[in-house]
Amino acid sequence: MEVRFHKRVRADLDAILDKYYAVSLRLGDDFFAEFHIGVKKAVENPRFFHFDRSGLRRCNLDRFPYHFLYDVRGEKLFNVSCRIEHDKSAVVSDNAEKSSSKRHKS
């Protein structure tokens, strides 16, 4: 399965990694490894994770207060958002909402 990351995810990850690497190299590496484990789980079983309110699937990271949202289209997994877990407003990036609405219209 092909994985595609929205450009916003790259910016989100850069900001998160900057924060953790500022604390320690190991913490930044641990976050990055856990993010990749979540992506690997989603690739191996794309329909395993539950839907959130936006209609996208949500993978919560175990050790860190973050989750990422993704959509599955055929043999492609689109990662559209990486957000902090304690953000209870459930506001999803405009890109995630557009992706979800496009998926539901198809």
Outline of the structure:
With 106 residues, the chain is α+β, with helices and mostly antiparallel strands. It is built from three helices and four strands. The protein has a four-stranded mixed beta sheet with strand order 1-4-3-2, sandwiched between helices.
What would you note in describing this structure?
Helices cover 46% and strands 24% of the residues. The protein has 3 helices and 4 strands. The chain has a 4-stranded mixed sheet with strand order 1-4-3-2, with helices on both faces. The longest helix is centred in the N-terminal third of the chain and has 20 residues, at 25-44. The two termini are 21 Å apart.
Structural class: alpha+beta
What fraction of residues sit in β-strands?
Answer: 15-25%
| Morphology call | elongated
* CATH architectural grouping: 2-Layer Sandwich
CATH class: Alpha Beta
Radius of gyration: 13 Å
Helix content, binned percent = 40-55%
Annotated CATH topology: YaeB-like fold
Topology pattern, helix = H, strand = E? EHHEEEH
Mean pLDDT: 80
Strand line-up of the largest beta sheet: 1-4-3-2
Task: State the domain count.
Answer: 1
Largest sheet: 4 strands, mixed
Low-pLDDT stretches are 87-106
Q: Please, what is the CATH homologous superfamily?
A: RelE-like
- DSSP E strands, number: 4
Report the span from N to C terminus.
21 Å
Count, helices:
3
- Oligomeric state, counting identical vs distinct chains: single chain
